Amino acid sequence: MKTMRAAVFKGNGILSVEDIPVPVIKYPTQVLVKIKAASICGSDLHGLMVPPAQYLPVGIVMGHEFFGEIIECGENAGGFVTGDLVVVNPAIPCGTCFACTHGHKGICDHNTHYGQTCDGGFAEYLVVESSQLYKVPDGITADAAAQTEPLACIMGGITKLQPKPDEHILLYGAGPIGLMYIKVLAALGIRHIAVCAKGERRIQEARHFGAEIVIDSQKGGILEILMKRWGQKPDAVIDAVGAGTIFPEAVEMINSGGRILLFGFNKSARSKIAPADFCVKEIQVVGSRSKDFPAALSLLSEGRLDLDELVSHRLPLSEINEGIALMRSREASRVIVYP
Ligand SMILES: [Zn+2]
Ligand SMILES: [Zn+2]
Fold first, then answer.
1. How does DSSP assign 146-181, residue by residue?
2. Domains along the chain?
3. Ligand in nearest proximity to the CA of 120
4. Contact 195, 175 (CB under 8 A)
5. Ligand 2 mean position to 289 CA, how many Å?
6. Nearest ligand to residue 40 Cα
7. Could you give the count of Cα atoms lying within 13 Å of 196 in the half-sphere of its Cβ?
8. Higher pLDDT residue, 303 or 124?
9. Is 106 helix (H, G, I), strand (E, B) or coil?
């Protein structure tokens, strides 16, 4: 039996790089992907907390943000062929729930998820359903392609928020997702981006990647700073953190007619808000978790977005635990591992 290196979740916050059997194609609709690069996500860190902030079954290979090459195809692999370079939408819809049968597969109630409910991409190889694949256009680097999944999540949020170039946007969070939001907003021509960031390193990075105003979230005084610099309240707020304190703050600060995008999520967070504010200011609130892979790949292929810039650390798969430690200590903004 052929074996491969893979990062396996052992429970209790332990991720172990070990030799396991190379997976084999079981259905004609599947393909075998040789993983070329994978990105560590903030939610991987949640799964490795003790107790875990996100449940992961013991024994699965982690990793849901990855890029690779098809090296073997089932007989009915949806037009994909050996040699295709692909990214994978890790959320596999059940196909039968209300959301799935009403055109909203992205918010399926019972999806399976590579790297979270079944084996994922922190490995040399993975068997993937061809329905989840997207061909990567020429000219996109492996490091950028490995980040297509978080970008697809962000594009899902952007599609709902519909930010316009002359708007003033306040973004909470300058971690791996917040920084990517800054770059996407800038690529879409939005000039007025203010970011609430925590820690000197994140503050510097937010500035470097194109935020017009960066506010130290530990110092506060957000609205005063915005009024002084912009002379107005934010037209839209993006919460890429999901802490319970942010939503009420956004409701209070936002301009009349403003929109709030709830993106970062933390299932145990709770907020206390005044419902009347929504009526008085006609605030619109939208949550987002579906992924828009075509929008992400089109932005990357047009060369409008350089995601390589976001990568702070590049490591072999065998050193994935070092990468996770670097993200935990906020020294790393984006870690790519190579199986
Ligand atoms: Zn992720
Ligand atoms: Zn479903």
1. HTHHHHHHHHHHHHHH---TT-EEEEE--SHHHHHH
2. 3-147+307-338 (3.90.180.10), 152-287 (3.40.50.720)
3. 1
4. no
5. 14
6. 1
7. 24
8. 124
9. helix
CA distances from 43 to 82, 206, 207, 291, 327 (A): 31, 21, 25, 15, 11
Query: Whose CA is closest to 328, among 53, 35, 17?
Result: 53
pLDDT in tens, 237-258: 999 999 999 999 999 999 999 9
> What's the CA gap between 313 and 323, in Å, rounded?
7
* Tokens at 258, concatenated: 């403003």
**What is the whole-number distance in angstroms between the Cα of residue 205 and the centre of ligand 1?**
20
The rounded Å distance from CA 43 to ligand 1 centre is 6
pLDDT of residue 31: 98
Give the closest ligand to the alpha carbon of residue 103. 2
Nearest ligand to residue 39 Cα: 1
Neighbours of ion ligand 1 (CB under 5 A): 41, 43
Q: What is the mean pLDDT of residues 180-187?
A: 97
Peptide bond just before 137 cis, omega within 30 deg: no
Q: What is the DSSP string of 88-147?
A: E--EE--SSSHHHHTT-GGG-TT-EEBTTTB--SSBSEEEEEGGGEEEPPTT--HHHHHT
Q: Give the DSSP H/E element, type plus range, for residue 94.
A: none
| Residue 294 C-alpha from the chain's centroid | 15
Ligand sitting nearest the alpha carbon of 47: 1
What are residue 6's DSSP bridge partners? 18, 123
Q: From the CA of 100, how far away is ligand 2's center (Å)?
A: 4
Nearest Cα neighbor of 237 from 202, 274, 264, 276 is 264
CA of 65 to the centre of ligand 1 (A): 6
Reply yes or no on whether the pLDDT at 153 is more than 90: yes
